[in-house]
Design a protein that fits this description.
Layout lengths: L1 H66 L6 E2 L34 E5 L5 H9 L3 E5 L5 H12 L4 E5 L7 E5 L2 E5 L5 H10 L20 E2 L1
Parallel strand pairs: 2-4, 3-4
Antiparallel strand pairs: 1-6, 2-7, 3-5, 5-6
Helix pairs in contact: 1-4
Length: about 220
């Protein structure tokens, strides 16, 4: 009998020991789960804060670029630039033109890249809709032209074409605004796009840049 009682006591002791060990494992698992969950939440919160901060910084940079003057930019009084629709040729006082009377049909300017010269009277109408027109002549390097084609190609309300008789190798025009840049990597390129693509100079903001003239476009 004494041996049976001893054996029973041993079993109870082992069972109690196993029960305590299982409880300890459960506590450890709960602690690990809580710790991992907290780390994941903290990571998500931190990542979300990083994204928000980055977006805020980019927005502030864009706003600053939109307000800052562009070095060597030329401006014309937008109110003095004609906006009549005409069917005859127009002699513009600047090359490329930055505004004035124009044809009633605009050049497609939804990131359109033209390999051949385009009619000025149609391009000016695109500027009226808030487009930025990138032009170049034979002095522009092939690398710069390619980079600018890529930029225009992914930018709605922009277009690009060669203008052989312009003064600068690469020029950017908007309604009443124009700048000659040193190359595709010139910081004034991004600044001009940021400031004038559908910018405050636009006489007809939101007007279409598709459905016009554009049979020479290369996508």
């Amino acid at each position: 009998m004494a041996a049976n009682r001893s054996s029973s006591a041993d079993r109870r002791a082992r069972i109690e020991q196993m029960r305590k060990a299982e409880q300890a494992r459960e506590r450890r698992n709960r602690i690990i789960t809580i710790t991992v969950s907290a780390a994941v939440v903290a990571g998500l919160v931190g990542f979300g804060g990083y994204v928000l901060n980055k977006e805020s910084e980019e927005k502030q940079q864009q706003e600053a670029a939109a307000k800052a003057p562009i070095p060597d930019e030329k401006s014309w009084d937008a109110k003095k630039l004609g906006r009549n629709h005409v069917t005859t040729a127009v002699k513009y006082p600047m090359t490329p033109p930055v505004g004035g009377d124009h044809h009633q049909v605009w050049m497609n300017c939804d990131g359109d890249v033209y390999k051949q010269p385009i009619p000025e009277v149609n391009a000016v109408h695109s500027l009226e809709h808030g487009a930025v027109w990138v032009t170049y002549n034979d002095k522009a390097s092939k690398d710069d032209v390619k980079k600018l084609e890529e930029k225009v190609g992914k930018t709605p309300y922009s277009l690009m074409s060669p203008v052989k008789n312009q003064a600068g190798a690469i020029m950017l025009s908007a309604w009443g605004k124009q700048v000659t840049v040193d190359g595709a990597d010139d910081p004034r390129v991004n600044q001009f796009f940021t400031k004038y693509v559908q910018g405050p100079q636009t006489p007809e903001p939101g007007a279409a840049c598709t459905g016009g003239q554009g049979g020479m476009t290369q996508q």
